[in-house]
UniProtKB/TrEMBL annotation:
Full protein name: Leucyl aminopeptidase family protein
InterPro entries linked to this entry: Leucine_aapep/pepB, Macro_dom-like, Peptidase_M17_C, Peptidase_M17_N_1
Family: Belongs to the peptidase M17 family.
Tagged with keyword Ribonucleoprotein: no
């Protein structure tokens, strides 16, 4: 089984000769179509409906002169999110294999960069465990003129890294393998790595990371992975939940809930993909980027933490463990407390944290929590612009009492079932004192049904929104 290469999503050599692809919206026929192309398309029933493809014949000797691809009509609200994030990704599976294509025209108002990113992401396949396909391969497109090729390829590579990590089963991606992935990224980007593992976590005052992961097998020992990237400027620290598999601990999950728990390290995958994008685009030189990943397996053994245990965190706050399946916030809390000690300008956590977030917003729209109204508005706008939508939810102060059990400072799993995503975010915020600004992303990290450019499986969420927003978020921190 080969190791996936996140850099496989690249445009074709710009010197390649590609066949033209005209992307057509209903009623908008490009002016430069070959003679007879429109008549041929209309005779074939092509109207520009989303996903329609019409191949254009290449004369008496056969072959192709190009193709038309339907973009579809806009919805009734121009400000609404499109039903399909990457419509052009459909072309990857509808156009002939083995042929290189170039974008000849695209409907007015369509962002060519986002369309091109979708075209590249349409090439993504997680094929680590399958035999190579026989026959012609899907050919990469030529980057359209005027599109920042390096940026789009960096975004695609970062997305591929996150997807590959999430898609890999826990048998091949435990805490040690997640550490190896971080070391590979560090080597690529010139970053340094420090790892604290096993019983040394206690000596390093990271007791909750140790408590969650101590029941795992010795070769899957818990650890904190700490990456620092070369650069100067505002401090930006990313913290990603790295629970490589979650049984639920002694509060064991039912089989129906355990089936997707290889993806419980989706926050770690997201911050590693984001860090790679920042480094590949040369943006890390202007910030002090740090990435912290508490990597554990929440296993069941004689020394597993128990319901009712009270843990003392790095920050000194005590936590009553009322559900061992609410372990993600425990490992994040120690990592956030460590991060906050450096007083970063921005502290951002990303985690597959709560089912409540999915009940509220579904799998495709992750909630974001941020106290700064202006910064939240920047993040929301960036998510829309980057085809990486997020939705703001509140740190609702009146719910603080719900995470205060009385017997300890904090409760990791308040009873009642109300506002689970908010109470989890409030819990994490208790450990961020010292950071100038804090944002938390409660992502799902999984595409439950295939969509164009987003096959069923692991998916990156929130990273492009943060990448796009970061220059404006940091503008006031420079100098």
């Amino acid at each position: 089984m080969h190791r996936s290469d996140p850099d496989r999503l690249r445009f074709a050599d710009p010197s390649s000769t590609g066949l033209p692809l005209w992307v057509v919206a209903p009623g908008e026929w490009p002016a430069d179509l070959p003679a007879g192309a429109r008549t041929h398309a209309e005779a074939c029933g092509f109207t520009g409906k989303a996903g329609q493809t019409c191949l254009l014949p290449g004369g008496v000797e056969g072959g192709l002169a190009g193709a038309l691809f339907g973009w579809g009509a806009p919805g009734p609200r121009t400000d609404a999110a499109p039903r399909e994030r990457f419509p052009l990704a459909r072309a990857v599976d509808t156009l002939p294999l083995g042929t290189t294509w170039r974008l000849a025209a695209i409907p007015t108002g369509v962002d060519q960069g986002i369309a091109s990113l979708g075209w590249l992401l349409g090439l993504y396949r997680f094929d680590r465990y399958t035999k190579p396909a026989e026959g012609p391969a899907r050919a990469a497109p030529i980057c359209p003129e005027g599109v920042d090729r390096a940026r789009i390829e960096a975004l695609a590579a970062g997305e591929a890294l996150s997807r590959d990590l999430i898609n890999t089963p826990a048998s091949d991606l435990g805490p040690a393998e997640l550490e190896a992935a971080a070391r590979t990224l560090a080597e690529r980007c010139g970053a340094t790595v420090e790892v604290t593992t096993g019983g040394d976590l206690l000596a390093a005052n990271l007791p909750m990371i140790h408590a969650v992961g101590r029941a795992a097998a010795s070769d899957r020992a818990p650890r904190l992975i700490d990456l620092r990237f070369p650069g100067s400027g505002p401090r930006v620290t990313l913290v990603g939940k790295g629970v490589c598999f979650d049984t639920g601990g002694l509060d064991i999950k039912p089989p129906s809930a355990m089936g997707l728990m290889k993806k419980d390290m989706g926050g770690a995958a997201a911050v590693l993909g984001l860090a790679q994008m920042l480094a590949d685009l040369g943006l890390t030189k202007d910030i002090q980027l740090r990435v912290l990943i508490p990597a554990v397996e929440n296993a069941i053994a004689g020394d597993a933490m128990r319901p009712g245990d009270i843990l003392t965190s790095r920050k000194g706050l005590t936590v009553e463990v009322n559900n061992t399946d609410a372990e993600g916030r425990l490992v994040l809390a120690d990592a956030l407390a460590l991060a906050a000690e450096e007083a970063p300008d921005w502290l951002i956590s990303m985690a597959t944290l709560t089912g409540a977030a999915r009940v509220a917003l579904g799998p495709d729209l992750p909630p974001m929590f941020c106290d700064d109204d202006d910064a939240a508005a920047v993040l929301l706008a960036a998510g829309r612009a980057a085809a990486d939508p997020i939705w703001r939810m509140p740190f609702w102060e009146p719910y603080e009492a719900m995470i205060e059990p009385g017997i300890a400072d904090l409760d990791n799993a308040p009873s009642g079932g109300f506002a689970g995503a908010i109470t989890a975010a409030l819990f994490l915020r208790r450990f961020t004192e010292g950071a100038a600004r804090y944002a938390h992303f409660d992502i799902y990290g999984w595409q439950p049904a295939s969509a164009p450019g987003r096959p069923k499986g692991g998916v990156q969420q929130g990273a492009r929104a943060i990448l796009t927003a970061l220059p404006e978020l940091l503008a006031g921190s420079r100098g």
